[in-house]
Each structure stands twice: as C-alpha cells, then as structure tokens.
Specification:
Dihydropteroate_synth-like_sf; 12% strand; Pterin-binding_dom; two-stranded parallel sheet
C-alpha cells in the first residue's frame, strides 16, 4: 500500500540573515552563521528547500528571570547572575552555536538599567565567547 504524503508548497521563502562578523569582516567572532532561506516549514525537507542547517542558540540574561525553571536552575545556578560565564557554559558544555543576550533588565518595571549597563553586559558576553551573538 502506497501512502502519499500531502505536500504544502509556498512560493515565498524566509529571508536569509548572516549573524556575526569575523575579523576579516571587521568583527570579533570566530565564524558567521547564515540562517533562513527556507521555502518550507522547519524539517519539512520533502516540501521545499532548506539551504542552511538548523543551529542551536542558547539564551543568557542580564538579570535573573523571576520565573526561571528550577529544572534549568540546576544547570546554571552558579552562573545565572554572570552573563559571560553563562554564555561560556552554553558554548563549551552544551554546544551552543549562537548566543542570544536577553536584556530584560532594561525594562522600566524589571530593573530599569541604563543603556550603558546593558552595553557592558553585551561586551562581557562578546569577550567570553567567540560564537555569533
């Protein structure tokens, strides 16, 4: 018995974005990562093109989230308040290929930290890992 998989095609595609810049490009990252370009839903290789592989990104915080899950705190408790060290752990121990820095502390009701303080947090993360941010 043959089973025909229904396919949903699209004329559009996701815009490609390159994240990071190497020293040759005027940046500080060890490599760049290009995402996007797909013409189908993630992992639906039978429906369209996926010119770039999926990548693992992990998130670090400028301020400890109030509702951070205990199940994750087990892995990050000693670095959760240090964005640079948390980023390093994400890359070195857990294989993150990208780091997202959540600057939640800049929100007026969640810390209201200044733009200068937020910039220092980003600089700390940039100095701790070489993957794209």
């Amino acid at each position: 018995m043959n089973i025909e998989i229904p396919k949903e095609t699209s004329a559009g595609k996701i815009v490609e974005v390159t994240i990071g810049a190497t020293s040759e490009q005027g940046g500080t990252r060890s490599r760049t990562i290009t995402i996007g370009g797909s013409s189908a839903l993630p992992f639906h290789f039978f429906e369209g093109e996926h010119p770039h592989r999926q990548v693992v990104a992990m998130e670090v915080f400028d301020k400890i989230p109030k509702k951070y899950p205990d199940s994750l705190m087990e892995y990050y408790r000693d670095v959760i308040d240090n964005p640079g060290e948390m980023a390093k752990r994400c890359v070195e121990e857990y294989g993150a290929e990208l780091i997202s820095v959540r600057l939640e502390g800049t929100h007026p009701e969640k810390g209201n930290i200044s733009a200068d303080e937020a910039a220092e947090t980003v600089k700390e993360v940039l100095g701790s890992v070489e993957v794209p941010i």
